[in-house]
């Protein structure tokens, strides 16, 4: 297996750690310029631009009238999926709902003795747009993306939820995706993909509505478009290629480690699959297992490229050193395949999701465990969290003063206002203090 193997104390090992710590990327200039043009056209031309791009890259016969999925298409989709798929869909959705229901925040109010009332009002945004990639022309529908992005929006109470996804050549959407949309309460689905779909959600067209929050994974053009419209709308996060870091001791099973590294590597040629271990034997046997298991993968060429270009195995002296490196790297998925993983959990500071024990594959988190699989990448786990209900919520502060309370605070307010040179602020208090009540 052509994968980088280094010892942490060597110059090459230190160089590797430095590169892993500093792997954030904001995209390339060529992509940025292309997306800027797409956004401008959609903003100024609306449906006409969306249809033109869709006809060019996805469905040659698309028209503005065909952009929205009809009730008849939903009905047709229901007849095309198998019962076992629907069973799994309900099962996964139930797990994800159960987890995210605990995230819902409550409004709160507190009252002081002088009559001051302060608090926080928690309200959902009015609308949210979910982007779902095409999945190789619809042949590999990303059902889990619909569940992971749609369910938190429903729990948050978002009133209008829409989904955009590229159609296949015939202008159709995968029946599995439509059933997933219905499972999470989305009946407004549009046939549009890439940067033009993001632009349509951000600015609105004659057919596709403008939304307040845009979530969902995508290629570099989708990511760039989300970055460019960020601020006009809220986005879930700036996402890079998928990542996994496995920390292993001598008790770990190399076959399990290799399987989980390959599970990430098959996503994308730029995916990042890492192993940090204190056991040279585990390291060497894992590399052997990577070779053995790779040949069975349908996407083996993608996985092979990812492992050769970005994968690495790093040998360290102690688990403390491994944990310290993990905190510096701030990986998307962190697996602790060690003898007592719970012992090390309190020392983890930065990771998108943490998987404890050898029988907890990252794939469980992708589909049915319950926690969200939309996670920070590129080291952003240092400052960001997984997508959740809070992504679709906003908070308003509540403040109410009685006259008695304002009199008690007046001098402090005016003193701070004077220091900042804001005499109008101070005067807004003074006119109330001097206005005596009968």
Q: How would you describe this structure to a colleague?
A:
Strand 12 (333-337), helix 14 (341-344) and strand 13 form a beta-alpha-beta unit. Helices cover 44% and strands 16% of the residues. The chain has three domains: 4-25 and 240-369, Nitrogenase molybdenum iron protein domain (Rossmann fold, 3-Layer(aba) Sandwich), CATH 3.40.50.1980; 29-235, Rossmann fold (3-Layer(aba) Sandwich); 401-433, no CATH class. It is built from 17 helices and 14 strands. It has 438 residues and is an alpha/beta fold. Helix 5 (83-100) crosses helix 6. The mean pLDDT is 96. The strands form three sheets. A six-stranded parallel beta sheet has the order 1-11-10-9-12-13, sandwiched between helices. The protein has a five-stranded parallel beta sheet with strand order 6-5-4-7-8, with helices on both faces. A three-stranded antiparallel beta sheet has the order 2-3-14, with no helix packed on it.
Question: Which topology of the largest domain does CATH recognise?
Answer: Rossmann fold
- Structural class comes to alpha/beta
How many domains make up the coordinates? 3
Distance between the termini: 88 Å
The largest sheet, given as strand count, sense and whether it forms a barrel, is:
6 strands, parallel
Radius of gyration over alpha carbons?
26 Å
The parts where pLDDT drops under 50 for at least 5 residues are: none
Q: Give helix % range.
A: 40-55%
Strand count: 14
CATH architecture level-2 label of the largest domain = 3-Layer(aba) Sandwich
Sheet-strand content, in percent, reads: 15-25%
Count, helices = 17
Mean pLDDT: 96
Indicate the overall shape: globular
